[in-house]
Amino acid sequence: MSSDTMKPASADVLIVGAGPAGSAAAVWAARAGRAATVVDMAEFPRDKTCGDGLTPRAVLELQKLGIEDWLGEHPRTEGVHMHGWGTDRKIVWSRKGAFPFYGSAISRAEFDERIRQLALAAGTTMVTGTKAVDADVHDGRIVSVTLQRGDETWKISPQKVIVADGVRSGLGKVLGRQWHRDTVFGTAVRSYVRVEKEWDWLVTHFDMKNTEGETLPGYGWMFPLGNSGGNGELEHQGSPIINMGVAAFSTAQRPAKVQLRPLLDQYVAEMREQWGLVGEPMQVKSALLPLGGAVSNIAGRNWMLIGDAAGCVNPITGEGIDYALETGRFAAEALDVDDYTTMWPDLLNEKYGQMFSGSRRLAKIFFYPRVTATVARPIMHWEKGMRGAMRLMSNLVGENEHDDAATLARFAGNVSLKLDKRSRRPFH
Ligand SMILES: Cc1cc2nc3c(=O)[nH]c(=O)nc-3n(C[C@H](O)[C@H](O)[C@H](O)COP(=O)(O)OP(=O)(O)OC[C@H]3O[C@@H](n4cnc5c(N)ncnc54)[C@H](O)[C@@H]3O)c2cc1C
Q: Is the pTM here over 0.85, yes or no?
């Protein structure tokens, strides 16, 4: 049935948002025999401002979803090629743990549509061009959600609601979600740039200077998309494409005083010769980059927030596609639970609490470029230390891993979690 004519009035499971979180939840719900209805205000395929990078953690989820073959048609990244503090280092993805040894990068227009198609194939009802604008809540339970398409509004009465409406989470706000901006967050700009030849690393630059020459708390990235890059509308003209962008860190008390577009232009100019950049940046878009685990009120009796809506974003790097896919699966696995009010934040704290709490503290160091340089310079020059640091920064520590780096990460995370007041736990 076409989205234009569908006006469902009830649903077993209502999922708001068809990004990676919502669509993954829909796939797993449908595979578990639940009738899921997904609504998204966009028409697909749609662009999403992102770096398009996929970590091995995301690859593992794609393997679980059964689409590794499709992934094989896209660039395969060996690891991260880091630059900064007077040197550069190629750090291969960790071979130690439970995660695959490769990552990738796929434009979000293509990526999100692939997961959405998987949800449709699994039997999900998909209603696009339709926004969730309000909810009636009684005694912690969502009774109905108001949907809007054009001038029309109507109510849908779901048994369960999974809220996957992204970083701004309009429906989450209606439900009382609060994002605490005293932890570090970022603002970022991304673009697509043609290159003479592609590479197979996620390239990052720390130690960036702003247009006045001062060191900036933030980083730049250049992720290879191969020949299927761009958001589907770009003319390749025979050249591969990269996703290129810069991010600047802020807190509410200390907002970054930086103009992102001039910073991007400067980054492009500095990289042009060495990396064979061709032409000007295309499809330049900026967005808020939340740096994880700083939201409260993420669940009620029959509803839960997942993905970006729940602040499930790596507190240091800002990547969140992997957590979106994972939390979509966790939510579907929890559909038979009666009450999510404490169960859901407890689960997210169990899965991510240590890492998010520890990394959130570490992210504050990035806020002070001189301190960062003092800490980072010796680590950048120490191969083993750098490999460990990258594994921790990318959260490539599996639940059952007990090697030195994993033990250290867990210990530090645990101490950090203990130092957090209850009201400042990563998820509550
Ligand atoms: C500049 C930038 C760079 C990034 N780079 C990376 C990266 O390289 N790798 C990585 O892993 N992560 C990256 N991230 C983070 C990543 O983009 C998010 O973590 C990811 O998109 C979260 O997925 P989601 O499904 O939770 O939300 P989204 O992908 O935002 O999807 C939310 C969906 O909900 C829909 N929606 C919103 N409100 C409503 C409503 N009221 N009713 C109906 N539908 C609604 C939207 O249309 C959208 O389709 C980056 C983010 C930014 C901003």
A: yes
